[in-house]
């Protein structure tokens, strides 16, 4: 089959690779129907040394079950499924608490010897716990929105959920990428009244307004912080959802959050050390939360409104490429020509 | 009157100072009945440059109202009162949310021109919002426990409250100072089932066991982390209450906390930057919370069990000195000869 590998920063190739096979009785093999390029794929696209390549790429997909291991029940060949970007057994104490990303039997696609999803087919470990079956007769027009359940919609929801967004809340979202925009949508669904979107790409922030943003702040840094404070009566935003992952975004979050408020991070941090002392988090009793989203915990909850068209998270896809064109998809996202690129096999 | 000043690290003096007077109609003047030395007073005792001195010291007190300003109602001369270490109007939007430490009309004793409490009398700004009246006929034996409501008990409670400690919970407390020990008591009051106290001073950890600790871990660093993980089935502690403030204590908290758990800090951080990236907080979805305790928000709630003797937080005081002996009190706490030193005028 054909599969995507990153050789080093800026160097993405589609190549021949062995077809995936059942390796454990808990596996399934799934043929990809739709996959996509993630904002987090751009981090290695900027920085990956050649010594770490070639690395399989992609962790979001819809697919058709092709084969299941002997210990997988509830799925048969031909089922349409969505997979979270992290596989998990869905039975351990962490999964039962909704923290599938910490499942001791779990892991991430395209990491640690598990294949990527920007490919024709993928082996899914812990398939029974990981996969969620979709209606067989689903309208093809819904596929983009269903695909967002694999990562970006669940991740945006996680940001809002961890920040305990509640009706009437004031929420600031940092980042107008797909996750940031779907954090806007999620904050709106949880009842936020005021949603300030910090982003500077007009087409994206317009989509943010469609999803529920009430204000857009294109300024960054101190200027952006001042604007958010001005919009929130001088005190800052009760919740700040940080969907970027770079240190300046964290610093903006610290500046924009209200005393006693919450910073909820879902952008994968590209830093390890950052200010958390008296002058940043401690003095104003600010809570810092977030992490990789346990998307599996949210799929059933978010699915109905996608299926009945109440929400259209799939609007974040503004370009579609074939599998052979995946390198062009990376380039387009990196150049901000595309917000999020969907891949058809 | 006589009052305590720190001239520089290690140099504490009791000197003559002007008697406090009403400066604003919202002030009261309170004559000190009991004050004390705080673990946080030891931070400047270790590091304060001479250029920052002389600084008034002390922020915890019980007292008798001597005079009130024209806008203070509900208090009269002779009332016995307890004061939180932070004064606040108790009417603003932050105070109404229970975040008195962020009151725009508030501030801290012994900071920014406000007198300290290791003295004979103190001016209390925002007296009506700040002070809490105690029963006139209170048993003198209860004074030590009542004094803890000014800071250390409320601060220990804040740590547990911010960590949302709940019945059946597993909680680890880092630090066997007065705040750590009262965090143990608070976790117990909130229903924690397993309370692991990290501390190496046997007399203190014994008091911790009296307050509710089920396990004591004297080891520090990686060894201490391993011990907590061993005691918690390998996964770590759902909540970690950090009552020290030094970076190694934070690092222990990161190592000892369970994925999806909470680190709640009340030790005043003696650092600004610390690890919060994928390898520390983000990857395991750990929440970081805490800050200076809005003690005022908790006094009424914690008072009844103190008055009826259900709890005895005043047991943290193991030495009493006169005002003139305050420098000796600092020395004894610094040398770990005393856990917490009470000051009588």
TrEMBL record, chains A, B:
Its cofactor is Zn(2+). Pfam families: ADH_N (PF08240), ADH_zinc_N (PF00107). Residues 178-290 form the Alcohol dehydrogenase-like C-terminal domain. InterPro entries: ADH-like_C, ADH-like_N, GroES-like_sf, NAD(P)-bd_dom_sf. Keywords: Metal-binding, Zinc. GO terms for molecular function: metal ion binding. The keyword Membrane does not apply. Residues 25-135 form the Alcohol dehydrogenase-like N-terminal domain. It comes from the Bacteria. This is IMP dehydrogenase.
